[in-house]
Write a structure and sequence with these properties.
This protein is an alpha+beta fold. It contains 3 helices and 3 strands.
Length: 88
């Protein structure tokens, strides 16, 4: 007899995005272009975040890497990265 694992099954962010794209018809490239239109210029000039649409778009080098509600304070790692970049 096969026994179930005691480790809970999780769904990755990648799987969720692909489901939204393939099963629900979300145009991921259109979303990517929209985010780039908001953040692209600021990122090109070295910004570490952009606040727009009630959101905080966090930038790491040339990548827009995460989005969080604007009222959330950046975590310690994000603050330290921003300080290192500002001093460089």
């Amino acid at each position: 007899m096969i026994q179930s694992s005691k480790v809970p099954v999780v769904v990755t962010d990648h799987a969720v995005v692909r489901y939204l794209e393939r099963a629900m018809g979300l145009n991921v490239e259109l979303v990517r272009e929209h985010i780039l239109s908001i953040c692209g210029d600021a990122a090109a000039f070295g910004a570490v975040c952009v606040r727009a649409e009630g959101l905080r778009f966090e930038i790491d080098g040339n990548r827009i890497c995460t989005v969080s509600p604007d009222h959330v304070t950046p975590n310690r790692t994000g603050q330290e990265m921003a300080l290192r970049r500002a001093r460089a």
